[in-house]
Design goal:
The longest helix is centred in the last third of the chain and has 20 residues. A hairpin with a 2-residue loop joins strand 11 and strand 12. By secondary structure, this protein is α+β, with helices and mostly antiparallel strands. The protein folds into 4 domains: about 90 residues, no CATH class; about 140 residues, no CATH class; about 140 residues, no CATH class; about 110 residues, no CATH class. The strands form 4 sheets. Strands 2, 3, 6, 7 and 8 form a 5-stranded mixed sheet that branches. A 4-stranded antiparallel sheet has the order 11-12-13-14, sandwiched between helices.
């Protein structure tokens, strides 16, 4: 299903023809028509990119469409028209000469029947060999050993690069690629296209952030233990033809290079695309997920967030809600790429699930959160001590996003992580309370206490206990005129939330002393009495609260606290 969708993506875009691929090149070997190395031309430049609040400088290489020489794993295997210093210059401590000879053999065989000036120049270059003068020229241009080892070279002749745009060279490669067949494999019925095709035993590499620098395989079987039943490691990884193998790798690599079609979720990479190469759906989907703080312009930020959750103000009028939309979450691994999940549905159905998620999160503001509606990464950051994305549990981000996109229950690991941070003494802020509210709605079907602001009608015991704790805390705070270094919140909240019977009798006794210090404690005493009456007289304080009831307790506490701050000040407040 995944490979089939990626092949369809390739056919919608047709970015490069079969047998070709995009390659990032750092330098050009400028050679004469007689094969002499004239000079080395750098093709990379520095570019500043924004990562969060920091600006980072990265090296960018020039992109060319070049022949796909297949997968290079171990051993010596040259690549046509583009390769590293070992193959094109013989500079490699271990196998420099062997690599250069492999590149020479490949190019002489490939270009032997071609009579173009560029082909003749390349043949002359390899036939002549590398001289000490050539090495001195290379060392003078790229003195850094590490940079030289990472350099990728292409040929330039008479001011023109030898790539896909060289008509005669491209014709030679297309004929060579079409004639290539895996010896002994024959043709198979491709499981993806349904057509007869040459079986592809080794699929191309995919460049995924956090993975191997050379790329990793999405489909591979390189040992007997990984092969399907009855197959050997030497057999094809799957009954996938040469065309489908090329198409799905090309499409996925293109998506991973396009910023409007992927995002990073912790250590995972989320890739998404609309069918028929429609761009607007991908742009709008990305805007829903990736909201960044504009610290210098809060009004602008609020406006952006509001637009992302109101259909009539967002660019959904430019989107086809019935168009198929694909979401693929990938994770790097030591050997191959892991698929966290894949989901396909209409764009409208996915947007509906996203809007429902934002609706579940709606809660009275604490006037400290910069977001009108909370992006997923703000919630994930609340599960960490440092509030930084790189500290989020590895699988949690993908699980959370998967539940949002599919409209399923939220992962309880996320709920537990939020409760853990609260038990550790962290404040119950808007983000934590909003997530708890959303989990109670989606996972426990709670529609009673999961209101946006204070619910004074419910008799839910856990919710009322949370409200009561907030009243007792506020009573203590008023009695001390705000001069306390710590409140009952710091000392008793965790116990009150988990084991109310151990704590509340003590807190109620303390509240009598706190009320005595106020000139007019009527408001708090009345509210405390109303809440006590709403509790069960025979068992007002349970011995223990289960996980979902702890969430209701916290939600009641948050709602009651915000109601205090929202009221206008009178004589008793």
């Amino acid at each position: 299903m995944i490979v089939q969708a990626l092949v369809k993506r390739y056919e919608d875009t047709l970015t490069v023809l079969p047998g070709w691929k995009r390659r990032n090149v750092s330098h050009a070997l400028n050679i004469s028509e007689t094969g002499k190395l004239l000079n080395i031309i750098p093709l990379e430049w520095d570019e500043k990119i924004q990562e969060g609040s920091k600006t980072k400088k990265v090296k960018r290489k020039r992109e060319f469409v070049l022949p796909d020489g297949g997968v290079r794993s171990s051993g010596v295997k040259a690549s046509p028209l583009c390769d590293d210093a070992g193959y094109f210059l013989g500079i490699d401590e271990k196998r420099g000469n062997a690599k250069f000879e492999a590149a020479k053999t490949l190019h002489l065989e490939l270009l032997k029947n071609t009579n173009s000036s560029s082909a003749n120049a390349i043949i002359a270059y390899f036939t002549k060999g590398i001289t000490s003068t050539d090495i001195e020229l290379v060392r003078a241009t790229i003195p850094n050993e590490k940079a030289l080892a990472q350099a990728v070279f292409i040929f330039q002749i008479n001011g023109e690069f030898v790539d896909y745009n060289d008509l005669e060279i491209s014709t030679v490669w297309n004929n060579h690629y079409a004639a290539t067949d895996d010896i002994g494999m024959g043709q198979i019925r491709c499981l993806v296209t349904g057509k007869l095709d040459v079986s592809e035993s080794i699929h191309g590499k995919i460049k995924l952030r956090g993975g191997q620098s050379a790329g990793s395989n999405l489909i591979s079987a390189n040992a007997e233990s990984f092969a399907s039943y009855g197959n050997r490691a030497a057999d094809p990884a799957a009954a996938i033809g040469k065309y489908a193998a090329f198409a799905h790798v090309t499409a996925l690599n293109d998506l991973l290079q396009d910023k409007s079609h992927h995002q990073f979720i912790g250590g995972d990479t989320l890739v998404y695309w609309a069918e028929e190469n429609s761009q607007q759906e991908s742009i709008d989907f990305g805007n829903f997920l990736n909201m960044k703080i504009e610290e210098t312009d809060d009004d602008k930020l609020s406006d952006i967030m509001e637009k992302t959750t109101r259909t009539q103000h967002f660019n959904f009028d430019k989107c086809d809600m019935k168009r198929s939309f694909h979401i693929l979450c990938l994770s790097p691994n030591a050997a191959r790429i892991s698929v966290r999940y894949y989901y396909a549905n209409t764009f409208g159905a996915i947007i509906k699930n996203l809007k429902a998620h934002y609706h579940n999160l709606e809660i009275i503001t604490d006037n400290r959160t910069k977001f009108t509606h909370l992006p997923y990464w703000v919630i994930l950051n609340e599960t960490t001590v440092t509030k930084k994305a790189d500290k989020v549990a590895p699988l949690l981000g993908g699980q959370f996003l998967h539940s949002i996109i599919k409209g399923t229950t939220y992962p309880l690991t996320l709920y537990n992580a939020i409760l853990t941070r609260i038990r550790a003494g962290e404040d119950v802020n808007q983000t934590k309370a909003a997530l708890i509210k959303a989990v109670l709605i989606k996972n426990f079907n709670d529609k009673e206490v999961t209101t946006v602001d204070l619910n004074q009608e419910t008799n839910n015991k856990s919710y009322i206990l949370g409200r009561l704790f907030a009243v007792l805390e506020q009573l203590q705070y008023r009695a001390s005129s705000g001069g306390l270094n710590s409140t009952i919140r710091d000392r008793y909240f965790t116990s009150a939330c988990a084991n109310p019977s151990n704590v509340f009798p003590t807190l109620l006794k303390l509240s009598i002393h706190h009320a005595a210090k106020l000139d007019n404690p009527t408001f708090y005493e009345k509210l405390k009495g109303e809440l006590m009456v709403a509790l069960d007289e025979r068992n007002p304080f349970p011995k223990a609260l289960p996980m979902e009831d702890q969430g209701r307790f916290i939600l009641g506490y948050y709602h009651q606290r915000q109601s205090f701050f929202a009221k206008t000040t009178k004589t008793d407040i």
